[in-house]
């Protein structure tokens, strides 16, 4: 997945932690390259409780890594995929994934 802002591709990191950061923008998980992290106006989503941009998005939920708040992602927001150059609507995808997980995990 490229940097959402400049399109740079992530390369294999040397030993240690990756300098790339995960973030959430318009309800979708994005990557931010080290160069773009220096920009002050990244237009990233923030936590409603603490204002942090340290958010992760997974299976229809958005979690703040600073304060731990979890909320449901809005279903009316467009999803951004790694393959598409711009936003693409995928209606019902979250519901389909949830139903599939319920079947596999035997939830009622």
| Beta fraction | 15-25%
What is the average of the pLDDT values? 81
Number of domains: 1
Q: Looking across the biggest beta sheet, what order are the strands in? A: 3-4-5
Task: Write the element-wise H/E pattern from the N-terminal end onward.
Answer: EEHEEEH
Q: What's the Cα radius of gyration?
A: 15 Å
Class computed from helices, strands and strand pairing: alpha+beta
Uncertain spans: 77-89
User: What characterizes the major β-sheet?
Assistant: 3 strands, antiparallel
Anisotropy-based shape: globular
Q: What is the strand tally?
A: 5
Number of helices: 2
Protein name: Transcription factor zinc-finger domain-containing protein
Question: How would you summarize what this structure contains?
Answer:
The chain has two helices and five strands. With 108 residues, it is an alpha+beta fold.
